[in-house]
Amino acid sequence: MSRTTEVYLDSASSARLHPAARDTLLAALERGYADPRRLHGPGRDARLLLDNARAVVAECLGVRPDEVGFTSSGTEGVHRGLLGLTTATGRDGIVHGAVEHSSVLHVVQWRDSPAHASIPVDADGVVDVDALAAAARAAGVGAVALQAANQEVGTLQPVDALDLPAGVPLLVDAAAAVGHVDLPRRWDALTASAHKWGGPAGVGVLVVRRGTRWTNPFPGDDGLDQVGGFPDVPAALAAAAALQAVLCEREEVAARQFAQVERVRSAAAALPDVEVVGHPVQRLPHLVTFSVLYAGGDEIVAALAREGYGVASGSACTASTLEPSHVLAAMGALTHGNVRVSLSRDTTDEEVDGFCAALARVVGEIRAGAGL
């Protein structure tokens, strides 16, 4: 029987606005409308709010406020970050893991170089850090990109085990990890996206460590940081408030979600011809992906939606293209019939149990309808 209210299990695509962000955003809209570069009263008010947002994000990430810049998205952060690193080094080659977010792959395609290298991962999605480091020593390599955690299967990458040669900077895409797990310590540039942690959409973060060679790869701007442009001050402040709140509750939420995801993993694995992918332990606490043989991912998603559960299928960033997931393909996993479940901060045990029952029912009905 269909539920009247859908249970949202797609927070890895975009989390609900955190209550702390909502309250802050409404208050900031009254004060943060002016140009923070102006010296009049409203301008000074806006600059104060923006500086506060930057200081809070910096404290949460363990960096200096002047290292933090706000972008329009995590994707823009990756583009600016990688292109800025390679522009500064004067070498276009980018070495990256095979399961990086599509924003990294788009930079690689856009800046064509014979020095580019994609490094394989194992069946759990863990990159070979020795191979990554070896490839980074090749002539023409200007930067390395390695995610903190995979946005599609949840696997954590051993970023701190990476031993790169001097002069080759590392960009870490932390969009999937911020607010859920401890971040790597070893990086030169880091990117994130506020709507992944319960902040408003349209706010990304680009952090460039002081002393890192980075050059704005785009036309100049009279902005307040490495990003430039007119900042969305209320949204930046709301994003900072959400991040602060999420980190305060992270330990309790992550422990609960890890256990809940274990139940989903067990329920999916118990079904015939279903493959649960991603590392079983070194993973994000709130996310699991599995592939179902003899059933289409879109079919499963639509059927679960009728049951009252909102989940995702396909690559987390390219599902609309209907192309097979490059992440699952790189892992050697089944790319057909894949489903990604990502819990919200307030997902209950009862909702998880209901989803597990609905999943078994839906998969059985789809297969029976196909005569299997």
Provide a descriptive summary of the structure in words.
Helix 4 links the parallel strand 3 and strand 4 (117-119). Helix 2 packs parallel to helix 6 (233-269), helix 3 runs parallel beside helix 4 (102-110) and helix 6 (233-269) packs across helix 9 (349-369). The strands form 3 sheets. A 7-stranded mixed β-sheet has the order 2-8-7-6-5-3-4, with helices on both faces. Strands 9-10-12 form a 3-stranded antiparallel β-sheet. The protein is globular. It has helices spanning 19-29, 41-61, 74-89, 102-110, 129-136, 233-269, 297-307, 326-331, 349-369; strands spanning 7-8, 68-71, 93-97, 117-119, 141-145, 170-173, 189-193, 204-208, 274-277, 287-292, 309-310, 338-342. It is built from 9 helices and 12 strands. The relative contact order is 0.17. The longest helix is centred in the last third of the chain and has 37 residues, at 233-269. The protein has 2 domains: 19-248, Aspartate Aminotransferase, domain 2 (3-Layer(aba) Sandwich); 250-369, Aspartate Aminotransferase, domain 1.
Q: Any idea how many domains?
A: 2
Kindly report the average pLDDT value.
93
Please describe the biggest sheet, giving its number of strands, its sense, and whether it closes into a barrel.
7 strands, mixed
Assembly category:
single chain
**Total number of helices:** 9
Number of E-state strands: 12
Span of the ends, CA to CA: 23 Å
User: Nearest-angstrom radius of gyration?
Assistant: 21 Å
Strand order of the largest sheet: 2-8-7-6-5-3-4
* CATH top-level class of the largest domain: Alpha Beta
Portion of residues in beta strands equals: 5-15%
